[in-house]
Amino acid sequence: MTDAFHSPAIELRGLRLAFSANPILSGIDLSVAAGERLALIGPSGSGKSTLLRCVNGLERPDEGEVFIFGEPLARQGRSRVQARRRMGMIFQHFNLYSMKTVLENVTLAPIAVGGLKKTEAERIARTCLGRVDVSTLADKYPFQISGGQQQRVAIARALAMQPEILLLDEPTSALDPELVQSMLELIQSLAGDGMTILCVTHEINFARRLADRILFMAEGRILESGRPDELLDRPRSERLKSFLATLG
Ligand code: ADP
Ligand code: MG
Asked: Which CATH fold topology does 1-69+167-241 show?
């Protein structure tokens, strides 16, 4: 039996994944404590999104295992469903259901997966929409609201499942520049709630403020990992030095 109390929120052991013989993840080992906030940085194509997708089970590694609070994610059935319920994911391109209203987007999973009654799901949805400042948009469709508002709805949708782990994949990279700062502030405020956070981002100053630890990924490997000041101010590898230089 695993001891859930002492288990890391996320544990990756020896993850390997190739797409048509191209290695994408080349041996990833990682342990994330409950409540820890991690930023994942690295060049485009280094495998960051694929890593996140393995954590929440959207992608299956060829080798290695993912544990969520000590439970192997690969196990079929109830424990897999339960593990995935404990995670919310925010995508770069929001990924809202275009044929559903904002309110329906947020109530869908609590009803279908969480088994809540519609009225209860709507009550929770309205609370979550309020937390991200889009209460007034409940009856709109995604195409009627801005990208920044859509991303806020996507965050409300994740929060409605009361996740213990929040995975964010470049949550601001598709937003207009003037919307980025307020989105980063919103994410920072959620991070105060004790959720375990794994956030892929190119916003280095945000990563510095948000993260307890930053991981630098390149070519399918975690090349460096450390506190923000260690990793950003005293990078060890030439790879990380040159990556940071490209960000200016
Ligand atoms: P990052 O998020 O760091 O930019 P990704 O994890 O998206 O990197 O992608 C890593 C590499 O894997 C890229 O070269 C990408 O083209 C490739 N890749 C990602 N998903 C697939 C897929 N479903 N099929 C084939 N190749 C993929
Ligand atoms: Mg990506």
From this structure: Rossmann fold (3.40.50)
